[in-house]
Description:
- The complex is a heterodimer.
- Chain A is α/β, with parallel strands linked by helices.
- Chain A contains 6 helices and 15 strands.
- Chain B is built from 8 helices and 16 strands.
- Chain B has helices spanning 22-38, 52-60, 79-93, 104-116, 232-240, 249-253, 284-287, 318-333; strands at 9-12, 42-47, 65-70, 97-101, 121-123, 127-131, 136-143, 148-153, 160-164, 181-186, 196-203, 217-221, 244-247, 270-278, 290-299, 312-315.
- In chain B, strand 14 (270-278), helix 7 (284-287) and strand 15 (290-299) form a beta-alpha-beta unit.
Amino acid sequence: MLNILVCVKQIPDIDLVRMDPETGNLVREGVPTLTNPLDLNALEAAVRVKERYGGHITLITMGPPMAESTLRECLAVGGDEAVLISGRPFGGADTLSTSYSIVKAAEMLGNFDLIFCGKESMDGATGQMASQLAERFNASQISCCSKIEEISGGKIRALRTLEKGTELVEADLPCLLTVEKDNFFGRLPNLEAYLASKKAEIRVLTENTIDGLEMEKIGVPGSGTIVPEIYAPKLPEPGQIIKTGSVKTDVGRLMSLLVEKGSV
Amino acid sequence: MKKTDYKDMWVYIEHDGQTAADVGLELLCEVRKLCDTTGDRLFAVILGNLPETETGKIINCGADGIIRVKGTGYGYFNTDAWSNAFTVLCRKYNPSAVFVGGTINGRDFAPRFAVQLNTGCTSDAMELGYDPETGDIRFIEPAVGGKIMAVITVPELRPQIATIRPGTFKYAPCGARGEISVIEEEISFDPGAVRCRRLDYFPDESDPELDIANADCIVCVGNGLKDQEHLERYRTLAKLLGGKIGCTRPLYERGILPYKLQIGQSGVMVKTKLYISFGVSGAVNHTAGVDADVFVAVDKNPDAQIFNFCDYGIVGDMDEICDEMIAQLRARKGQ
């Protein structure tokens, strides 16, 4: 039976996040949260593996207490247990320290054969977590997986999508995978699992309950990068808006301009 | 070691055994300018065999030196040998910064060796700055869907590692420097220890409709598109203009057009003569991917940010305006 870990993240709806023009801070209050969409594709891949080979799926996330709702959402789709890493000292972490915290917590949960991650999060969008987790798990890595062909004898054979082609690879377990969204379209939860997820127990691990956690490696102190400054993008001056009174004459004017420029 | 003891900036040269990928050369050109400010030397790092003719191109981008790594384990890309090589090299030479092209494989191994070296890694910077007081590079990138620009620094650790997307910076070689130091390193990685092995590779069949990077004209459709049924007219317009159709991220997310047509920082960077956007809001992540001689924007929202990036704009219903363009182009061609 395969022991599978799926890493997920709760993110703010970035369409609704705005910058306070006075303070220059991001305003997140009242902004709804969602499960990072690409993480649902990773979960789908894990559920398919479990259906084919049998297995146990553990979901893990790090975040404030409200991130529990993301774990429940994922449990409803397919997960056997869920763990939330939460505590103030974890806040403000970059990928270097987040990957450390997740791996330290996961070490308490057993040895995983397969780890699935989304390719990137919609909010931070560094796309670095998967590689950094793989390194810390001392696992092989198949990024951008489009198909899992076979898992047997401690190995996984899969296809990877590259810029100009597809690569067939074989990797040793444990292996961490990120998946292509087009090939692992997420399923909807079934009603029974949905109801069960509402009552499921979520295990919470804190800075005090994770074994051997070195405090200087988590949160801000453990981060390699900082964000000393944010600002609104500097926009160029608007172009020439064509406004002649009707669509026909607007387009006519545009065409003349494009002909002048030699564009058409 | 103090951070000021770390010297020189490195650019990884990704290659296929024959030619150096553009992104490495683009980064050399940009990091050259940064090195001129900081006083660091610029080195190109090559793993495995690359023909001498390509070395000429690298030198012409202003590199002060080349580090060539030979040995076993570099027959095909694998994250184990690649991250090991960079960890070994960085521990030996202590560079101040390492730049890696943000290709699929670059984004795969760079964050890994950042963990091995326990240092900070940034991704997708669009602009590089320098703070002489702290000696830190300022990696400037769009964040939160392009609503803000964030300055990222690596304030204590070294090297400062960055992956940067292909096409972000221009390939504008400044010419060769006087003296070039060439360092040969042997770092062998046991091929038997590679944990993810390439068994086969299948190149994509080339589909000219999906190759839009250098199309003469691009008609880009954004989230303003109502649904799939409304798409056809934009294909017709693109065809009449001798161009190709492209899209923004939401249209790919909605499953309307394939990923290879997604224009912007996380998709294709395009260079074109004429670019016409319909229903595109103008997030900087998208506009950063457009290099057009003439930029036309059509959107129903007069305050849309896209109008800040265009040469000519029309405010109105995108479908109606597209249809009128088709009609007038047909009339012009006498069809």
